[in-house]
Protein backbone atom coordinates (compact mmCIF):
# COMPACT_ATOMS: atom_id res chain seq x y z
CA UNK A 1 0.00 0.00 0.00
CA UNK A 2 1.47 3.44 -0.90
CA UNK A 3 1.55 6.42 1.50
CA UNK A 4 -1.46 8.05 -0.19
CA UNK A 5 -3.63 4.97 0.45
CA UNK A 6 -2.23 4.59 3.98
CA UNK A 7 -3.04 8.23 4.77
CA UNK A 8 -6.65 7.70 3.67
CA UNK A 9 -6.90 4.75 6.05
CA UNK A 10 -5.79 6.67 9.15
CA UNK A 11 -8.62 7.44 11.58
CA UNK A 12 -6.96 8.56 14.85
CA UNK A 13 -3.77 10.28 16.01
CA UNK A 14 -2.93 7.11 17.90
CA UNK A 15 -2.83 5.19 14.60
CA UNK A 16 -0.51 7.87 13.17
CA UNK A 17 1.81 7.51 16.18
CA UNK A 18 2.00 3.73 15.90
CA UNK A 19 2.68 3.90 12.17
CA UNK A 20 5.29 6.68 12.56
CA UNK A 21 7.19 4.73 15.21
CA UNK A 22 6.91 1.38 13.41
CA UNK A 23 7.25 2.44 9.80
CA UNK A 24 7.45 6.01 8.59
CA UNK A 25 10.16 7.55 10.81
CA UNK A 26 13.81 6.65 10.27
CA UNK A 27 15.90 5.35 13.20
CA UNK A 28 17.35 8.83 13.88
CA UNK A 29 13.95 10.49 13.54
CA UNK A 30 12.36 8.02 15.91
CA UNK A 31 15.00 8.69 18.57
CA UNK A 32 14.93 12.47 18.18
CA UNK A 33 11.16 12.96 18.10
CA UNK A 34 10.42 10.47 20.87
CA UNK A 35 13.11 11.31 23.39
CA UNK A 36 12.20 12.59 26.85
CA UNK A 37 14.40 14.46 29.33
CA UNK A 38 16.27 11.40 30.56
CA UNK A 39 14.67 8.65 28.52
CA UNK A 40 14.74 7.44 24.94
CA UNK A 41 10.96 7.01 24.83
CA UNK A 42 8.32 9.74 25.04
CA UNK A 43 7.18 10.40 28.61
CA UNK A 44 3.39 10.26 28.76
CA UNK A 45 2.73 12.60 31.70
CA UNK A 46 0.80 15.04 29.55
CA UNK A 47 -1.31 12.41 27.79
CA UNK A 48 -1.99 10.44 30.98
CA UNK A 49 -3.14 13.57 32.81
CA UNK A 50 -5.81 14.24 30.16
CA UNK A 51 -7.33 10.84 30.93
CA UNK A 52 -8.21 11.96 34.47
CA UNK A 53 -10.71 14.49 33.13
CA UNK A 54 -14.31 13.69 32.19
CA UNK A 55 -16.84 15.67 30.21
CA UNK A 56 -20.31 16.37 31.63
CA UNK A 57 -22.69 16.84 28.68
CA UNK A 58 -25.61 19.28 28.38
CA UNK A 59 -28.95 18.19 26.91
CA UNK A 60 -31.65 19.59 24.64
CA UNK A 61 -29.51 22.23 22.89
CA UNK A 62 -29.72 22.57 19.12
CA UNK A 63 -26.34 21.17 18.08
CA UNK A 64 -27.16 20.26 14.49
CA UNK A 65 -24.26 22.41 13.24
CA UNK A 66 -21.65 23.24 15.92
CA UNK A 67 -19.26 26.08 15.02
CA UNK A 68 -15.58 25.53 15.71
CA UNK A 69 -14.23 28.76 14.22
CA UNK A 70 -13.05 31.38 16.70
CA UNK A 71 -10.64 34.28 17.28
CA UNK A 72 -7.05 33.93 18.44
CA UNK A 73 -5.16 37.18 19.15
CA UNK A 74 -7.90 39.07 17.30
CA UNK A 75 -7.47 36.99 14.12
CA UNK A 76 -10.25 34.73 12.90
CA UNK A 77 -9.18 31.09 12.65
CA UNK A 78 -11.09 28.06 11.35
CA UNK A 79 -10.49 26.12 14.60
CA UNK A 80 -8.68 26.62 17.90
CA UNK A 81 -5.88 24.17 17.01
CA UNK A 82 -2.35 25.13 15.90
CA UNK A 83 1.12 23.65 15.57
CA UNK A 84 3.96 24.17 18.05
CA UNK A 85 7.59 24.63 16.99
CA UNK A 86 9.53 21.37 16.60
CA UNK A 87 13.16 21.39 15.49
CA UNK A 88 14.88 19.27 12.81
CA UNK A 89 11.70 18.35 10.94
CA UNK A 90 13.85 17.26 8.00
CA UNK A 91 14.35 14.03 9.98
CA UNK A 92 10.63 13.34 9.40
CA UNK A 93 10.21 14.46 5.77
CA UNK A 94 12.33 16.11 3.08
CA UNK A 95 9.90 19.05 2.83
CA UNK A 96 10.23 19.59 6.60
CA UNK A 97 8.95 22.89 8.10
CA UNK A 98 7.61 24.22 4.79
CA UNK A 99 5.27 21.20 4.47
CA UNK A 100 4.10 21.63 8.07
CA UNK A 101 3.45 25.32 7.41
CA UNK A 102 1.47 24.51 4.26
CA UNK A 103 -0.52 21.86 6.13
CA UNK A 104 -1.65 24.61 8.46
CA UNK A 105 -1.10 28.36 8.23
CA UNK A 106 -1.24 29.21 11.94
CA UNK A 107 2.09 27.91 13.17
CA UNK A 108 4.18 29.14 16.07
CA UNK A 109 7.81 30.11 15.68
CA UNK A 110 10.06 29.73 18.66
CA UNK A 111 12.22 32.53 20.01
CA UNK A 112 15.86 32.64 18.86
CA UNK A 113 18.14 30.16 20.60
CA UNK A 114 19.86 32.85 22.72
CA UNK A 115 16.61 33.30 24.65
CA UNK A 116 16.99 29.69 25.75
CA UNK A 117 20.15 30.77 27.58
CA UNK A 118 19.79 29.76 31.25
CA UNK A 119 20.78 33.28 32.41
CA UNK A 120 17.80 34.95 30.69
CA UNK A 121 15.46 36.89 33.03
CA UNK A 122 12.17 38.78 32.93
CA UNK A 123 14.21 41.94 32.12
CA UNK A 124 15.44 40.30 28.87
CA UNK A 125 11.89 39.32 28.01
CA UNK A 126 10.80 42.92 28.52
CA UNK A 127 13.56 44.06 26.15
CA UNK A 128 12.41 41.56 23.47
CA UNK A 129 8.80 42.71 23.79
CA UNK A 130 9.73 46.40 23.58
CA UNK A 131 11.90 45.79 20.52
CA UNK A 132 9.56 43.46 18.63
CA UNK A 133 7.12 44.52 15.97
CA UNK A 134 5.29 41.19 16.33
CA UNK A 135 3.18 40.01 19.25
CA UNK A 136 5.41 38.03 21.63
CA UNK A 137 3.96 34.88 23.19
CA UNK A 138 5.49 33.32 26.31
CA UNK A 139 5.77 29.54 25.89
CA UNK A 140 6.63 27.33 28.84
CA UNK A 141 4.60 28.96 31.63
CA UNK A 142 3.50 26.44 34.29
CA UNK A 143 2.45 28.56 37.27
CA UNK A 144 0.09 31.40 38.05
CA UNK A 145 2.94 33.46 39.52
CA UNK A 146 5.08 33.26 36.35
CA UNK A 147 1.99 34.00 34.27
CA UNK A 148 1.42 37.25 36.20
CA UNK A 149 5.11 38.20 35.83
CA UNK A 150 5.16 37.76 32.02
CA UNK A 151 1.93 39.71 31.70
CA UNK A 152 3.54 42.54 33.68
CA UNK A 153 6.40 42.44 31.13
CA UNK A 154 3.85 43.13 28.38
CA UNK A 155 3.47 39.69 26.79
CA UNK A 156 0.64 39.28 24.23
CA UNK A 157 -0.35 35.72 25.16
CA UNK A 158 0.81 32.70 27.15
CA UNK A 159 1.29 29.07 26.21
CA UNK A 160 1.07 26.65 29.11
CA UNK A 161 3.73 24.20 27.95
CA UNK A 162 6.41 21.90 29.32
CA UNK A 163 7.93 21.62 25.82
CA UNK A 164 6.57 18.10 25.43
CA UNK A 165 8.23 16.89 28.72
CA UNK A 166 11.56 16.86 26.88
CA UNK A 167 13.56 19.05 29.21
CA UNK A 168 12.66 18.15 32.79
CA UNK A 169 12.06 14.65 34.06
CA UNK A 170 8.85 14.48 36.19
CA UNK A 171 7.64 17.87 35.03
CA UNK A 172 4.03 18.74 35.89
CA UNK A 173 1.46 17.88 33.16
CA UNK A 174 0.22 20.98 31.37
CA UNK A 175 -3.52 20.26 31.66
CA UNK A 176 -3.17 20.08 35.47
CA UNK A 177 -1.87 23.67 35.75
CA UNK A 178 -3.95 25.28 33.01
CA UNK A 179 -6.72 26.46 35.38
CA UNK A 180 -4.24 28.11 37.76
CA UNK A 181 -2.60 30.04 34.90
CA UNK A 182 -5.94 31.07 33.39
CA UNK A 183 -7.22 32.32 36.74
CA UNK A 184 -4.01 34.22 37.49
CA UNK A 185 -4.32 36.41 34.39
CA UNK A 186 -8.07 36.37 33.70
CA UNK A 187 -8.56 39.98 34.79
CA UNK A 188 -5.91 41.21 32.33
CA UNK A 189 -7.66 39.66 29.31
CA UNK A 190 -4.43 37.87 28.27
CA UNK A 191 -5.14 34.83 26.12
CA UNK A 192 -3.85 31.50 27.41
CA UNK A 193 -3.12 28.52 25.12
CA UNK A 194 -1.93 25.00 25.95
CA UNK A 195 0.26 22.35 24.38
CA UNK A 196 1.45 18.91 25.53
CA UNK A 197 -0.38 15.63 25.09
CA UNK A 198 -3.28 16.87 22.96
CA UNK A 199 -4.20 13.74 21.00
CA UNK A 200 -7.98 13.88 20.43
CA UNK A 201 -10.96 16.18 20.08
CA UNK A 202 -11.90 15.44 23.70
CA UNK A 203 -8.47 16.71 24.80
CA UNK A 204 -9.12 19.92 22.85
CA UNK A 205 -12.60 20.23 24.40
CA UNK A 206 -11.24 19.71 27.96
CA UNK A 207 -8.51 22.31 27.39
CA UNK A 208 -10.97 24.88 26.09
CA UNK A 209 -13.34 24.18 28.99
CA UNK A 210 -10.53 24.79 31.48
CA UNK A 211 -9.88 28.18 29.90
CA UNK A 212 -7.49 27.75 26.96
CA UNK A 213 -8.35 29.93 23.94
CA UNK A 214 -6.54 27.46 21.66
CA UNK A 215 -4.36 24.36 21.79
CA UNK A 216 -1.21 23.42 19.90
CA UNK A 217 0.27 20.07 18.89
CA UNK A 218 3.94 19.12 18.51
CA UNK A 219 4.65 15.42 17.89
CA UNK A 220 1.34 14.61 16.13
CA UNK A 221 2.22 17.04 13.33
CA UNK A 222 5.53 15.18 12.94
CA UNK A 223 3.74 11.83 12.69
CA UNK A 224 1.55 13.25 9.92
CA UNK A 225 4.53 14.85 8.21
CA UNK A 226 6.50 11.60 8.19
CA UNK A 227 3.70 9.70 6.50
CA UNK A 228 2.34 12.21 4.02
CA UNK A 229 4.22 15.54 4.13
CA UNK A 230 1.86 18.50 3.89
CA UNK A 231 -1.16 16.20 3.37
CA UNK A 232 -0.25 14.20 6.45
CA UNK A 233 -0.19 17.34 8.62
CA UNK A 234 -3.51 18.42 7.13
CA UNK A 235 -5.05 15.01 7.89
CA UNK A 236 -3.90 15.17 11.54
CA UNK A 237 -5.58 18.57 11.94
CA UNK A 238 -8.72 17.39 10.13
CA UNK A 239 -9.06 14.43 12.50
CA UNK A 240 -8.78 16.74 15.53
CA UNK A 241 -11.31 19.18 14.01
CA UNK A 242 -13.79 16.39 13.23
CA UNK A 243 -13.40 14.93 16.72
CA UNK A 244 -13.88 18.34 18.35
CA UNK A 245 -17.01 18.89 16.23
CA UNK A 246 -18.41 15.51 17.30
CA UNK A 247 -17.50 16.04 20.96
CA UNK A 248 -19.30 19.40 20.92
CA UNK A 249 -22.35 17.82 19.34
CA UNK A 250 -22.59 15.00 21.88
CA UNK A 251 -21.77 17.33 24.79
CA UNK A 252 -24.58 19.70 23.71
CA UNK A 253 -22.41 22.71 22.81
CA UNK A 254 -23.00 24.85 19.76
CA UNK A 255 -20.19 27.43 19.86
CA UNK A 256 -16.59 27.26 21.08
CA UNK A 257 -17.28 30.06 23.58
CA UNK A 258 -20.11 28.02 25.15
CA UNK A 259 -17.68 25.30 26.31
CA UNK A 260 -17.59 25.87 30.07
CA UNK A 261 -15.51 24.83 33.04
CA UNK A 262 -18.54 23.32 34.79
CA UNK A 263 -18.68 20.71 32.02
CA UNK A 264 -15.43 19.13 33.22
CA UNK A 265 -14.87 16.89 36.23
CA UNK A 266 -11.40 15.74 37.33
CA UNK A 267 -11.58 12.17 38.60
C1 LIG B 1 11.53 16.79 18.74
C2 LIG B 1 10.99 18.03 19.37
C3 LIG B 1 11.65 19.24 19.18
C4 LIG B 1 11.18 20.41 19.77
N1 LIG B 1 11.81 21.60 19.53
C5 LIG B 1 11.34 22.73 20.12
C6 LIG B 1 11.98 24.00 19.89
O1 LIG B 1 12.95 24.11 19.15
N2 LIG B 1 11.45 25.11 20.51
C7 LIG B 1 10.35 25.02 21.34
O2 LIG B 1 9.91 26.03 21.88
N3 LIG B 1 9.73 23.83 21.55
C8 LIG B 1 10.19 22.71 20.98
N4 LIG B 1 9.56 21.51 21.19
C9 LIG B 1 8.35 21.45 22.05
C10 LIG B 1 7.09 21.67 21.22
O3 LIG B 1 7.04 23.00 20.74
C11 LIG B 1 5.81 21.45 22.02
O4 LIG B 1 5.83 22.23 23.19
C12 LIG B 1 5.56 20.00 22.43
O5 LIG B 1 6.03 19.11 21.44
C13 LIG B 1 4.06 19.81 22.65
O6 LIG B 1 3.80 18.53 23.14
P1 LIG B 1 3.27 17.31 22.21
O7 LIG B 1 4.43 16.88 21.39
O8 LIG B 1 2.83 16.33 23.22
O9 LIG B 1 2.12 17.84 21.38
C14 LIG B 1 10.01 20.35 20.58
C15 LIG B 1 9.32 19.13 20.74
C16 LIG B 1 9.79 17.98 20.13
C17 LIG B 1 9.03 16.69 20.32
TrEMBL record:
Its cofactor is FMN. Residues 1-267 form the FMN hydroxy acid dehydrogenase domain. InterPro entries: Aldolase_TIM, Alpha-hydoxy_acid_DH_FMN, FMN-dep_DH, FMN_HAD. Pfam families: FMN_dh (PF01070). The keyword Transferase does not apply. GO terms for molecular function: FMN binding; oxidoreductase activity. Keywords: Oxidoreductase. CDD domains: alpha_hydroxyacid_oxid_FMN (cd02809). It comes from the Eukaryota. Signal peptide: none annotated. Belongs to the FMN-dependent alpha-hydroxy acid dehydrogenase family. PANTHER family: OXIDASE, PUTATIVE-RELATED, S -2-HYDROXY-ACID OXIDASE-RELATED. This is Hydroxyacid oxidase 1 like protein. It comes from Argiope bruennichi.
